[in-house]
Amino acid sequence: MLPSAIFLLVILSALGAFILNVSSSQQVGMALDIRGERAWQAANAGMEWARYRIAANPSSPTCPVNTTMGASTYSLSFSNTSTLRDFFATVECNAFPAADVDGISTWMFEVRVTACSPAAATEPRCPGTPTALGYAERQLQGLLSF
Fold this sequence. Notes:
The chain is of the alpha+beta class. The protein has one helix at about 1-55, and strands at about 75, 90-100, 105-115, 135-145. The chain has one domain. The chain is built from 1 helix and 4 strands, in the order H-E-E-E-E. Strands 1-2-3-4 form a 4-stranded antiparallel sheet.
């Protein structure tokens, strides 16, 4: 009777440890999902900022300063927000020559925004340090025409 009670106790302890491990893994996974969603929100905010800055001069739109594609030295900080406080968004922009479309001057811009956390210490802030625990990064890219 005693050996079967000990065996049963060992089995129940192992089952309890397994359940605790699965629960812990699910919580970590959920936290990473939330960080990924926040990274997407930061990237989307960066894209909206780029649209606003490009459209600020409708007669002759240009890329925002220091956002050259592949050599950007401009990152948006979200330190004044409650949910995106530790995120940065690096904005890159490439302007194409104006084209005449049915008699209307049209400008095209390729914009890429990379949001990340934790970010690098110097510009460009993103991509950051992918080996850091809890690292999250999202990238949006699009063509804008004005």
